[in-house]
Amino acid sequence: MLRSLVVKLSLAFLLVSLVGIALVAFFAGRVSTNEFNNFADAQSDSVLMNQLVNYYEINGSWDNLDRIGIGGVGPSDGQVRPFVVVDGQSQIVLSGLNQEAGNRAPRGWLNRGIAIEVDGEQVGQIIFAEGASRGMQQQPPRTDFSTRVNRAIFLAALGATAVSLVIGVLLARSLTKPLHEMTQATQAVAQGDLTQQVPVRSDDELGKLATSFNQMSADLAKSRDLRRQMTADIAHDLRTPLSLILGHAEALSDGVLPPTSETFDVIHDEARRLNRLVEDLRLLSLAEAGELSLAVRPAQPQSLLERAAVAHTPTAQQKHIELALDIPTNLPDVLVDPDRLAQVLDNLVGNALRYTPENGRIQLSAQEVGTAVQLRVQDSGPGMNANDLAHVFDRFYRGDKSRQRHEGGSGLGLAIAKSIVEGHNGRIWAESEPGQGATFIIELPGANS
């Protein structure tokens, strides 16, 4: 299969050249053969005319002409000449065409006769069979042959050019059609129609371009949908605390609610939640734009995990969850911003505590993998299905649809964690099976890599 446009164009141009050369060779060879035969006949006719003129000059008449061998046929050969010679009175003096000498030539024959002149005077005619006249009255055979061959070669070259032009047009259309389709689709995308897809007709560069365009269009449509969904989610998450704050403030103003500490605590909690959501959005936008400042320095994986364990031990004890560490010695340092990475680990451990039931277990571990170090947070919760794993790092995504938003944070924690880890030239992913718990893995480059 031809996958390269360069190969296709090269073969197309070669085909056009070969077709042109073949057509010129075919027509020139065929016409040259015909014209050479005509040239030979013309030469023979010229010799015949000279013989007749010489005979008349020597004898002064056509007497006994039929008794000698003229035109390649003698009196005893038993062959019929392809022509006759008549004198000035239209009487046949050299038999041929099934006519004997002495007969009178049919009237219609004289119209196609070729004059025989001696000293400027017509003394007879030579008449060939109908349609067999060789054109002895035209220019000399050699000049005529050259002219006709040149004309034939010119016509052959003209025909080859026409065929090459047709092939070139077909080739140009095969190239411009997908480009035209892509241009139309691009214009439609520029006008806001992100559903445009162009047909992929080949595996060459144009086919790859069409595939890339289709992927780009699909990604743009997906990004648009995600942006719309994110806007709706942000509006929902902002509206809930704002509604509670406004509602309580109006109730206090109207005297419906008493100004108790409980009422002010609700307003304060909702304001903090609103502030946390705004801060998460700001942090996420900075991280995704690559503008999040990182104070990177070598750090020990053990100290990072121990700090996360200490920070969440009180919550784990309240829920009767075991928080364990499994860290081998002599792990290489990693190049990280300890504060930012602590934020990532806090989010992962916090999620693990949220989903791990009482008397469950959360394990923080680390291991060296090649030149990198992996940090793991593994819980014994309900786990996730394949769909949740595919979207767990999306903004505002919550696998448990029944869980209220105020119970699960802003829905931006894992998206922020992913952006921070990628800002350290690392990667983060999740592994899980329903009922088997979930494991979040952070892979960071070693300080010496």
Structure description:
This protein has about 450 residues and is an alpha+beta fold. The protein folds into 4 domains: about 1-60 and about 140-195; about 65-140, no CATH class; about 205-290, Helix Hairpins; about 295-445, Heat Shock Protein 90, CATH 3.30.565. Helices cover about 55% and strands about 15% of the residues. It is built from 9 helices and 11 strands. It has a 5-stranded mixed beta sheet with strand order 6-8-9-11-10. The longest helix has about 55 residues, at about 5-60. The radius of gyration is 51 Å and the shape is rod-shaped. The chain starts with a helix and ends with a strand.
The total of helices stands at 9
Strand count:
11
Mean pLDDT: 78
Indicate the overall shape.
rod-shaped
Q: What name does the CATH topology of the largest domain carry?
A: Heat Shock Protein 90
Question: What is the strand arrangement across the widest sheet?
Answer: 6-8-9-11-10
Primary descriptors:
single chain, 449 residues, alpha+beta, Helix Hairpins, 4 domains, 5-stranded mixed β-sheet, 4-stranded antiparallel β-sheet, 9 helices, 11 strands, rod-shaped
